Amino acid sequence: MRHIVQLVLAALALAGGVVTGLQIRSVVFVAPVADGQPSTTSVAFDPPLMMLTWALITAAGVLAVLGVAGLVRAGRVRDAATVRTPVSDPPAPEPM
């Protein structure tokens, strides 16, 4: 159950990282450098949103690895518990 929760949280963190990543850039108008020149545009990045995006995507990766590893480990333990060596019959008595 814990591993499923980790995978769900990883998906939510990844979705949050995508949403914040799409909001990082914004177009700003730059004033002309000299008289008579046209104004231009430039792209500005928001550092706090960049950091939040990085943190969310990192958390998503860590949670995904932990969740998948836990599920694989739990599956192996469950398989090992169900596969048992057959109990051998006691030896037959020798004829006299």
Can you offer a commentary on this structure?
The protein has two helices and two strands; from the N terminus they run αββα. By secondary structure, it is an alpha+beta fold. It has one domain. The chain has a two-stranded antiparallel ribbon with strand order 1-2. The longest helix has 36 residues. It is rod-shaped. This is Transmembrane protein. Keywords: Membrane, Transmembrane, Transmembrane helix.
Our estimate of the beta-strand percent is 5-15%
Please summarize the sheet with the most strands: 2 strands, antiparallel
**Major sheet: order of its strands?**
1-2
Instruction: Calculate the terminal CA-CA distance, rounded to whole Å.
Output: 60 Å
Which secondary structure elements does this structure contain, and how are they paired or packed?
Elements: H1 2-22, E1 25-30, E2 40-45, H2 47-82
Antiparallel strand pairs: 1-2
Question: Notable features of this structure?
Answer:
alpha+beta; 59% helix; 96 residues; two-stranded antiparallel sheet
In short:
With 96 residues, the protein is an alpha+beta fold. It is 59% helix and 12% strand.
